[in-house]
Structures are given as C-alpha cells and as structure tokens.
From TrEMBL:
Cleaved signal peptide residues: none
MF (Gene Ontology): copper ion binding; DNA-binding transcription factor activity, RNA polymerase II-specific; RNA polymerase II cis-regulatory region sequence-specific DNA binding
Domain Copper-fist: 1-28
Chief localisation class: nucleus
A GO CC term attached to the entry: nucleus
InterPro entries noted in UniProt: Copper_Homeo_Regul, Cu_fist_DNA-bd_dom, Cu_fist_DNA-bd_dom_sf
Domain of life: Eukaryota
GO terms of biological process kind: intracellular copper ion homeostasis; intracellular iron ion homeostasis; positive regulation of transcription by RNA polymerase II
UniProt-recorded name of the protein: Copper-fist domain-containing protein
SMART domains: Copper-fist (SM01090), Cu_FIST (SM00412)
Keywords from the named record: Copper, Metal-binding, Nucleus, Transcription, Transcription regulation, Zinc
Localization of this protein: Nucleus
Length: 67
C-alpha cells in the first residue's frame, strides 16, 4: 500500500484518486529570461514578457542601460 500524498511516479493505486503533490515554496512569477536578467545584471523588475511560461519569452525589449 502506498502513502497518501507520496511522490512516487510508479504508483498505480485505484482505491482513491491520485493527487498532485506540488513543488515546495512559492510559485515562480517571472519567466526564465527575466529571472536570468535578475541574476546576471542584478536588476529586479516585474516580468513584462508577453507569456509568463517557464520557457521564457524571446521578444522582450531590453533597455540600453541594462546592457
């Protein structure tokens, strides 16, 4: 028998619904592109990309003072 809320991807129990166990911590609010800017350039700005997916957006315009 498995434990409720476990992280095993191989469990196939049928007596109760499988429940997603999410990652710890707060969810990311910035895309990868803006997160990398924050780490590399030490600039913390709100994510202004069109899509806030974890893939990041490549169509962002970076102001000259950040380069």
């Amino acid at each position: 028998a498995c434990i409720k809320g476990h992280r095993s991807s191989t469990c196939k129990h049928f007596d109760r619904p499988l429940v997603e166990v999410k990652k710890k911590g707060r969810p990311a609010t910035q895309c990868n592109h803006c997160r990398e800017l924050r780490k590399v350039k030490q600039v913390h700005v709100k994510c202004a990309c069109q899509s806030r997916t974890s893939e990041g957006a490549s169509s962002i315009v970076i102001p000259e003072l950040w380069r």
